[in-house]
Amino acid sequence: MTWRLAIQASSKTQSTHSLHPQDRMLLRPLQTLGKPKAADSAVSFLRRTEYISSVTAKSKHDAGPLRSLNPSALRRATKRPSPEPDKDSPAYVKRKIDQSFSVAAANLKDKSRVRHPTKRNLKLVDSYPMIPDLEAFPDYGGYFTIKFTNNPVPASGVYDKRLLNAVIKPGTLPEEVETTFKLAKQAHERDPENNPKPTNPQTYNYFLSDTHETSEKFNERFDLLNPERDNDELYTSKNSDGHGCFQFRFVRTYETKDEVELDNATKYDEELLIAFNDDEMLDQKAVYYSPVMHRVVMRPQRSKTIYRNAGLAEDVEEIPDRLAVTVNDYDEKTRSIMDKWKTDPYKDPFPTEQAEGEDEGEKPQQQEGTADAHSDGEAAQQNSDEDQDAEGDEEE
């Protein structure tokens, strides 16, 4: 009892003794003891709902006749940004297209703004507009790209420039093999889940020049900037009629390992051939691109044994040891087809003719020496594995 009176007396008269830290809890007001309560609300029957009571009390305070002088209380809540439209919606696509034009215009004005997406240390040296090469359409409407699983020539430490020019001639398959493939392909198109896509049994005969001189002169015949490209003196051999030609030696037969076929509507979607032109006197400075309609990965042929076991040995194609190739300009019919591709790259200029030709086993062909000539700089950059199948070694 004496102790309580001492505490009460200390609140009226100042004590000369300091309060012990452990006794400070005893000086708390009585209303602070026990569980904390929410602020009293004007609505008695809602006092147990703490969330509503708090909001009601705050609203009542803000609605008083005198507003708070604190400027932060006068600020309005920041407006939330509108949600992003769906990525498939026209509004989203339109906005992204508009943004791309704005970014491109800013980059054209100041090339230092252009940054590589992954290598930030690179700087833009020059820029080219990308333009479709409408003058380079073949009569097929697109190009083939061919890759080898093995180096077609023996590996060495020096790149063989003969690989820049070669002739690839599609082989002739036995009729039974073609029929089986067509039926399997039709079954796959009808029900791709239960019928896997069949591998194309098409074969390709690969021919290569004997010397680097033949390869270089053959390339000069296709150089549009060479004023002597039509000179017959560039031919390095004579054919049976005594006319000039280029000799290409048979190397081996390849078969299809993998392929991707596109149509006119999708030929620009996956892969393009590009050519840089820096000479503004000849044409506009730009990067010209052309479509790729067919991509093929070839490997040395290993299917002759299968055909032979199936009793089709008599249908095996006889392959010439050499080809005599001459280079000529396109005829008028081929030119007219190319002009139609130039007018509308997506429209097939001969759908009826091609359909009839496929039924008869025929397809439109280019001039001799240009249909299968190609520049394949990737050949020697492929795997230099020199493993060859036994039949391929016998053919060489």
TrEMBL record:
Cite a single GO BP annotation. Answer: transcription elongation by RNA polymerase II
Q: Which family does it belong to?
A: Belongs to the PAF1 family.
State if DNA damage is listed as a keyword.
no
Q: Where is the composition biased (Acidic residues)?
A: 384-396
Its annotated compartments are: Nucleus
Q: In its UniProt entry, what is this protein called? A: Uncharacterized protein
GO MF term list = chromatin binding; RNA polymerase II complex binding
Might you report a single GO cellular component term? Cdc73/Paf1 complex
Keywords in alphabetical order: Nucleus
Annotated region (Disordered), positions in chain: 57-92, 340-396
Listed Pfam families: Paf1
